[in-house]
Amino acid sequence: MNADEQLMDMLRDEMRAGFQLVSKGIEQTNTNFSEAVGEIHKFRSEVTQEFSEIKEFRTEVSTKLDEIKEFRTEVSTKLDGIAALFGASENNVGKLEKRLVKLEHRMDRLDGRDKRA
């Protein structure tokens, strides 16, 4: 072999070695990229699951708030009824007190007539 052929062979060998290094680097990059994509998919699934749980919790909270509002309305209605009942009772007590006073006056007048007779 002559010197030119030897140089060409050495150059080819160096180029092959360089391409092999580049190929290994590309394979490692692809592996790393695939792992990163897998981790991203896993993280996305976890986020989606968490988001679903948050939506479910929000629905539960909304339902509870609706129940509380309904209960509050019922309590308010009952308290209004109780207040009306107390008002009516006070009115009736006032009327009964007036009747009682009138009856006491009548009794006093009758007692006074009985004592005179």
Question: Could you report the average pLDDT, rounded to the nearest whole number?
Answer: 93
What distance lies between the first and last C-alpha atoms, to the nearest angstrom?
A: 168 Å
SS strand fraction:
under 5%
Q: Radius of gyration from the CA trace?
A: 49 Å
Largest sheet: none
Helix content: over 70%
Per the principal axes of the C-alpha atoms, what is the gross shape? rod-shaped
Order of helices and strands: H
Give the beta-strand count: 0
Helical segment tally?
1
In short:
With 117 residues, this protein is mainly α.
Question: Which secondary structure elements does this structure contain, and how are they paired or packed?
Answer:
Layout: H1 3-116
Could you explain how this protein is built, in words?
There is one protein chain. With 117 residues, this protein is mostly helical. The protein contains 1 helix and no strands. The protein has one helix at residues 3-116. The termini are far apart. The model has no long low-confidence stretch (mean pLDDT 93).
Index terms:
117 residues; mainly alpha; 1 helix
